[in-house]
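Q: Is it fine to ask for two folds in a single conversation?
A: Yes, each is treated on its own. Send the first.
Q: Here.
A: Result:
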Amino acid sequence: MKIVNVVLLFVAVFFSVNCVAQKSKKAKPFEGHIFYNVTPQGEVDASLSAQLPTQVKIYFKGDKTREEKVTPMGSVVTLNDITTKIQIVLIDMMGQKMALKATKEEIEKVLAKIPTATMVVGTETKQIAGYNCKKVDFTQEGKTTTIYTTEDLVIPNSNWQNEYKDVPNVILEFLQVIPTQDAEIKMLVAATEVKKEKVKAEMFLVPAGYQEMSMSEFKKMMGGAE
């Protein structure tokens, strides 16, 4: 079985847009969804472009999030639980359905390798999906990128599982950079819709028909080291 490497790499490095604000005692936690468009920047090889996500849909409910990456080749869904710190990746591509479970220990091992970031909040603002956002210069390992965050959304899931874990507010726009063997692929990820709504609890469960396996089992199946 073969799954396109670029898609899997996107799953690994995409911060899953759980760049969510910390809990507030006054504001009511957000329940609903945020949709993001993904637009390649610069010239991208046509074969690679056909593998890249075109949209990311994030659903929030309590301490859980569901992230759907929509690609021309299929879907990748990530289920996150901040309480248990368990992550499940659902892959539905080329007739294969797999549910890959990452344990708390595996996630913490990855997080320990993420370097500390520094942030400088600028004076520039702009409206994104109806929300006022501030420009933030985000620097990690000497590399600075621009992100736009809003303080007007409160979601009780901190960004604990990705490289933006130091960001205190919801990110509605950022530049995703994916390193490949030949060059970097840059994609603008920008929110297009933020909607408050009731989200069904069933959306955070593994659907029937998926083969469940651990991340180490998946790596062995793909020919990689455990």
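Q: Second one now.
A: Result:
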Amino acid sequence: MGRVMLEKSGDVFVLTMDAGENRWNTAMVDDLTQALDEVERSVGAAALVTTGASQKFYSNGLDLDWRAAPEKHADAGDPAEFLFMEFMSRMITLPVPTVAAINGHVFGAGFMFALCHDYRIMRQDRGYMCANEIQLGMIIPGPELSLFRHKLPAHVFYESVQLARRWGGADALNAGIVNEIASSDMLQAQAVTKAQELAPLAVNRKQFGIQKENIFGADSILNDTNGAAFHLRNKALYAR
């Protein structure tokens, strides 16, 4: 896992992305997948914190140079094996609590990754979160729009995906994108403290994972066009 470091202290795994701007390519997904494998092999109380080694970037989005000329960036992996959406699906339903310690800029695919966590703490003095695809002349794929819509309030969703608004720490907190903000010196410690608090939820891993599937997976009740009264009258239809 050359682009990723994974350490454990108490019940908390700390995953540090250490590939410069931490752009997304096949090699990055593969390294992160191995890290998640290790986390899931653990038993009992556990939680995962992710952060970046850089003082500037948590993740700066897709590796666009690689996408444009993969033959010039062989170390970034085969584009045909870029299981990015599948990885995000796994992250959002990981059966342990997850906390993003957002240490710097978060753009595009990096924004997606941060939103796949259960809890987000952002550096208060530096860095923006932004879905910047429109600025790059790209259209946000449907699955990514679904993720943003599930995770963001309606007006924040539109400003983010259509207007490419850049959210600094205080604005991101006020908008409900992140749960806390912290100084750069305290960011990781604050994230680890929160993760340790949440770690006992992973004792019941099966249940923790199933409930995430009920929220984000197939036949999510959040997307059901029937109302709550119907759900309550027909509870057997929604048993898992």
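Q: Anything structural to flag on that second result?
A: Two points. The chain has one domain: 4-198. The radius of gyration is 18 Å.
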